[in-house]
Amino acid sequence: MNLLEQLKSFTKVVADTGDFESMIAYQPIDATTNPSLIYAASQDSKYKLLTEDAIQYARSISPNKSEQLTKALDKLAVNFGLKILEIVPGRVSTEVDARLSFDKEATITKARELISLYESNGISRERILIKIASTWEGIQAAEILEKEGIHCNLTLLFSMVQAVQCALSNVTLISPFVGRILDWYKKDRGVNDISATEDPGVLSVTDIYNYYKKFGYKTIVMGASFRNTNEIIELAGCDALTISPALLKSLENKEGLLKKKLDPVKAQQMDIKPIQMDEKTFRWMLNEDAMATEKLAEGIRKFTEDLIKLEKHISLLL
Questions:
Q1: Domain limits at 287?
Q2: One of 71, 104, 131, 214 is an active-site residue; which one?
Q3: How far apart are CA 94 and CA 81, in angstroms?
Q4: Which partner for 14 in 2, 124, 198, 242 could form a disulfide, CB atoms 3.0-4.6 Å apart?
Q5: All residues at 6 or more sequence positions from 246 whose CB lies less than 8 Å from its CB, including other chains
């Protein structure tokens, strides 16, 4: 078997793309999207009907241009999700507006609206993950949503403190960003490369995985944002990994024996101390982690930039 086939035997493989053809080719269980992926896909004529449907829906809701834009963006994200769910047997992640990352109540409202759109199209909320940035406010919003049966994917996660609070809040899934952590440390150390066995992003996800398994947390750990296949190989055995089409293809083209690196039984035997958490502790520990603080803020800004590009594109069509 190639490395991708072996990986699928002990890790759930999720497609990190908005391209349907890639999903058909690599047959992932789940898929995840974000404004960057949807913006890129919306420029492709193949997806013109999804955009046109979102425009028509928005016009039918309100004559107000500002409200039309909001409704069109929500419907476009859901339209992509609906098409993805025709391909993947599991779940799709749909993202809340990154500009709501520090607004608990607005995040809850937006998540409910997105779920309502899916349910009006006959899709159970069990097949949807609402993607929310791992700020204190985002995690608090997710805790409330989870109690309503709205499952959440906490994204832009760069630290143990974020992971611990997500677990305490009974979040369904977290997406720790491997590659962006590596990017920060390469720049900070002034080096061009760090081996996968010493990769700070790989080590971060490994620590989070072991912590969760040690203390029996049910939150799924889904490594994300990979820069190379070696990072993926070092995290074989993780609950889930969301991987770009280019890296999926690379894994498919590689032969060899893939070893399971992460193991819940081994994690339970490790000497790991529990971390006590409240809001003050969360904010202080996050503040003390320069990498996590910077990458969380940067990630929110970048998702917002791509959302604004998408807004401009849709505005011209309204």
A1: 12-177+204-225+264-315
A2: 131
A3: 7
A4: 242
A5: none
How many residues make up the chain in this entry?
318
Beta bridge partners of 92: 31, 128
Q: Please, which pLDDT band fits residue 220 given cuts at 50, 70 and 90?
A: very high
Give domain status of residue 112, yes or no: yes
DSSP codes joined into one string, 82-120: HHHHTT-SS-EEEEPPGGGTT-HHHHHHHHHHHHHHHHH
CB atoms within 10 A of CB 265: 7
pTM of the model: 0.94
Residues contacting residue 77 through CB under 8 Å, at least 6 positions apart: 33, 38, 94, 95, 114
Q: Number of structural domains, the chain?
A: 1
| Distance (Å, whole) CA 42 – CA 260 | 37
Q: Is position 250 within any domain? A: no
pLDDT the model gives residue 60: 96
280 is catalytic: no
Give me the helices (H) in the chain, please.
3-8, 20-26, 35-42, 48-61, 65-85, 104-120, 136-147, 160-168, 178-189, 200-215, 229-234, 245-252, 264-268, 279-288, 290-315
The CATH number that applies at residue 308 is 3.20.20.70
Residue 38 has pLDDT above 90, yes or no: no
Please say whether the beta carbons of 199 and 182 come within 8 A.
yes
pLDDT of res. 228: 97
- Say if 125 falls within a structural domain: yes
Q: Is the pLDDT confidence value at 197 over 90?
A: yes
The 10s digit of each residue's pLDDT in 141-151 is 999 999 999 99
